[in-house]
Amino acid sequence: MTDRLDCVIVGAGVVGLAIGRSLAIAGRDVVVLEAEPEIGMHTSSRNSEVIHAGIYYEQNSLKAKLCVQGKEMLYDYCEARHVPFQRIGKLIVASKESEKERLLCIRAKAENNGVTDLRLVEHEEIRQIEPAVTGEIALFSPSTGIIDSHSLMVSLQADIESHDGIVLTHSKLDRVEVLSDGFRLHVADADEAFECKTLINSAGLNAERVAKSIEGLHPGNIRAVRYAIGRYFAYQGKSPFAHLVYPLPIDGGLGVHATNDMGGAARFGPDVEWVDDIDYRFDESRKPKFENAIRQYFPDLDVDKLAPAYTGIRPKLTGPGEAPRDFSIEGSETHGVTGLVNLFGIESPGLTACLAIGEYVARQAGSYK
After folding, report:
1. Where in the sequence is the domain holding 294, given as residue range(s)?
2. Which of 111, 208, 251, 355 could form a disulfide with 225 if both were Cys (CB 3.0 to 4.6 A apart)?
3. Tens of pLDDT along 343-355?
4. Count of domains in the chain?
5. Per-residue pLDDT reduced to its tens digit, 320-329
């Protein structure tokens, strides 16, 4: 007889774990499948570890709503669970007075999203706030922060397990049969298939592959996921910044920005390069482009202190030159498969929004058995 489970989540990144936590707390029996040897080995651990305020996203989008909601949930969660974080604040810096209009547009968009604490600062105040930064005008966001993403994921996993859920690594989903009352899952190297009532595809970079493995899911409901790699350079020695420092946004991302980690060390990144495969090798030939980008707001950069740190890949629903798209979180009302929720394009601000996404998906999946 085939084993029958209640709810299976595919992907143990920060979003999959947050979904599993919400469902487990709501009384569902949860199993999280992760193909890799450890949790959160891809996008969740290869990012800037920033708690975003909710500034850049289109009004009424899922990104805007879930980021603003998730930010407060995340700060509260970190306080309660002793996950390391800092509400450090950030500057969005324009190097020319003529770019003031772009900053005002960003502030207006943020206010439409419910972020009302942004403050415009002029040249002299920029130097008071961040003496190493050069800019004509900037926006200051006091509610932006940083977080130890690994500690967060460990805590979310502990929440799942404390509610009798299970996280299984080394468990790559190969094929899914759609049944009249659920799903039959075939996992690589497993002796037998098993069944479940609810299936959540939160596989991040591999969400398209997982969706294609679901037999009977119409191809028109499978979103193409594009890959954008970004590199991060560490800055050796004491960080020259007390806050996060961002340039104006660019095509495909927020620009090469300066962040501090929880130990106070600075890093710069990410850049944006569109790629076809998941390959984390570091291309050091990009260093001159980093130098040029960083000097726009940090002219005293010592390029010899820049050392390759790591790369990350973002799952995007658009390609180069195309307008950003919202998160795609699709339940049966979209694709017609009862019990299935697919998540595509969960890039930034996915880390910030993870707890809010968890509750959102739990409602779509039906909170209780």
Report:
1. 90-142+226-316
2. 208
3. 999 999 999 999 9
4. 2
5. 989 889 999 9
